[in-house]
Amino acid sequence: MNKSISVLMTTFNRVETTIKCLDALFKADLPENYTLNVIISDSNSPDNTFEILKKKFPSIIIQNVGNNIYWNQGMIQSWNEAKKSDPDFYLWLNDDTFINRDALRNIIKDYFLVSKDSIIVGATHFNSVCTYGGRFSKLDERPLVPNGKPTKIKYINGNFVLISRKVFNKIGELDNHYSHSLGDIDYGLRVIKKGLNNCILPDIIGFCEANSRLRYDPKSRFIEKIKSLRSPIGLPFKEYFYFNFKHYGLLKSLKFTIGIIISLVIPMVYNKISK
Fold first, then answer.
1. Which of 13, 33, 93, 175 is the most buried (most CB within 10 A)?
2. Is residue 216 part of a domain?
């Protein structure tokens, strides 16, 4: 019996990078009797991403979802489209992640090797440094370097993640409260709360350069910090408060809030206590 994989992606204004990602995806080896469907949500890219991808990859489904749609919201739009065909698997793929030829075959193989109540996460590297994948216990620790066997993790990055229909039916889609970041981390924590597992693949699946941009700099000017707290690609205060309250409770949320207030009003004190 044939099985289907719906690849979920979102794009904005980097068409050459996205083409490179899709080229690697379509060159990858699929297990026998598997089909691949790609669904992309584009946020009205001014570089004509929508038109270029539609012409170059006629088999994909690409939809223009409007302006100012960031990762989490774009992925929800792709997921909503993918659900219509009820695939066996959903595969998150960031458009700046370039997978190895054996990545698809390995992620399916390892899904059947580990518990089927798991989502499977692929780790990436850049210049021989592990950049994305997962972490054991702390959000600020370095990504786990694959050790040759499937390993349970707590926090996940959404660059390359396989979610079965079985898991999706228990967890659902990404949380609509988030604009850009936190949605992937939130999803992994929801998986664990349901008694399921996040497992990282035994080997690196491809490469992706780390995003080194500082989301919130306590040393910046007051107005810049305010902008960051309002920006989906900064440190959106409401979304981070919601995330902390949802997963860690009121105390952690209040601690986060107090830290932000101190960094705004008396940054010198914040810099001392945060060292």
1. 93
2. no
